[in-house]
Specification:
Layout lengths: L1 E4 L10 E4 L9 E11 L1 H8 L6 H4 L12 E9 L11 E5 L8 E5 L3 E3 L6 H5 L1 H12 L8 E5 L4 H12 L3 E6 L4 H6 L4 E4 L12 E6 L6 H6 L1 E9 L14 H10 L5 E4 L6 H12 L7 E6 L3 H9 L6 E5 L1
Parallel strand pairs: 8-9, 8-11, 9-10, 11-12, 12-13, 14-15
Antiparallel strand pairs: 1-2, 3-4, 3-6, 3-15, 4-5, 5-7
The protein binds NADP nicotinamide-adenine-dinucleotide phosphate.
């Protein structure tokens, strides 16, 4: 099958469109013919092996898995002996750690859910990583009537987080760059801060929950925008890939600092399971959440899709069509 694969860590130049073996499936896995795959900053981290701490998970000297991509939407072609939930022909979405920028992917059935019927494959492929991360940022933290700030509101996670926080009944302020305000308001944001003109602490200690996907602001600045008992959720590491931990040192410091303050300061780790996908399907099918697609690239053009995402300013999600 055709796939986008790499043998060494590096820039998007190391990626090759080439023939690789179609994956074989285990008893608890499903073979999916991939129709669309989502691009997210995690793809860039796996490709470059930066920040270096990521290599503990992805391979110390070279990528353990050659094929890139994790989120997918497609059609089941084969199921393992222990799989009851799916059959060939089912349209599904989910994540695979074996690579999804490929014609086929092997996926544990517990990381798949039926594709929301109202979505195209491209829209569905936008959901499994960014939508799930946004859901897990909001769920259990945001209550109806609260004031919520989403930093990076036009991005992959942020465009879902704004919509999900609104669905939970919050008043939402989206933070984005110039030119994105209209998009962020169209997602349901009640107010928008253009970060090139104003800082996020513009209104003082105003927000019950701040979901930060941009990853570049000091904790002290974010805390100034948070109420005394507010919750800060750090989803992102930004574009600092230097050193061992890149922009993720805030995630490590936040829980320690949280022990000495009434504010809750938390990192966010997402779990891409069927349960979260089904919750998102309900939000999507009730019309409360719609994936926003910035651009869709053909498989052979995946390196350019990653280059575009790495510039750091997508309007919604970047997708690979297969
Ligand atoms: N915790 C987890 O489990 C998890 C899961 C997935 C991803 N992540 C991480 O979360 C982060 C965001 O992912 P994503 O998919 O949402 O990325 P993305 O689609 O690239 O979006 C990033 C957003 O950041 C905004 N931004 C850039 N500079 C900014 C600044 N100075 N101030 C405010 N906003 C700024 C951009 O908005 P403008 O265009 O308006 O500038 C862009 O929309 C990444 O670091 C990723 O690795 C974490």
């Amino acid at each position: 099958m055709k796939a986008i694969a790499q043998d060494v860590y590096g820039s998007a130049d190391v990626l090759q469109l080439r023939d690789v073996d179609q994956p074989s499936i285990g008893a608890d896995q499903v073979l999916v013919q991939v129709r669309a795959a989502g691009v997210d900053p995690g793809v860039w981290i796996c490709m470059t092996g930066r920040p270096y701490a990521a290599r503990v998970a992805f391979g110390l000297t070279k990528p353990r898995v050659a094929v890139r991509g994790r989120a997918l939407a497609g059609v089941v072609t084969q199921v393992g002996a222990d799989v009851q939930a799916f059959k060939p022909g089912d349209e599904v979405y989910g994540t695979s750690s074996g690579g999804t920028f490929a014609e086929y992917a092997a996926v544990p059935w517990k990381r798949l859910a039926p594709k929301p019927p109202s979505l195209s494959f491209e829209q569905a492929a936008a959901v499994p990583i960014s939508g799930v991360t946004a859901l897990e940022g909001v769920r259990g933290r945001v209550k109806a009537g609260q004031k919520v700030m989403v930093i990076g509101a036009a991005g992959g996670i942020g465009s879902f987080a704004v919509q999900i926080a609104k669905a939970y009944g919050a008043t939402v302020t989206g933070v984005c760059g110039t030119g994105k305000a209209e998009l962020v308001r169209s997602l349901g944001a009640d107010d928008v801060i253009d970060y090139t003109r104003e800082e996020v602490d513009r209104d003082g200690p105003h927000y019950d929950v701040i979901i930060d996907t941009a990853g570049c602001r000091p904790l002290s600045l974010l805390r100034r925008a948070l109420t005394p008992r507010g919750t800060l959720v750090l989803a992102g590491g930004g574009h600092d890939a230097g050193g061992l931990f890149g922009g993720y040192t805030r995630q490590m410091r936040a829980p320690l600092l949280s022990m000495f303050t009434s504010q809750r300061l938390q990192g966010l780790t997402s779990h891409e399971r069927a349960q979260e996908l089904k919750e998102l399907t309900q939000l999507i099918e009730s019309g409360k959440v719609t994936p926003i697609i910035d651009r869709a690239y053909p498989l052979a053009d995946a390196p350019n899709a990653i280059r575009y995402l790495a510039e750091g300013h997508p309007a919604g999600k970047v997708i690979i069509k297969i």
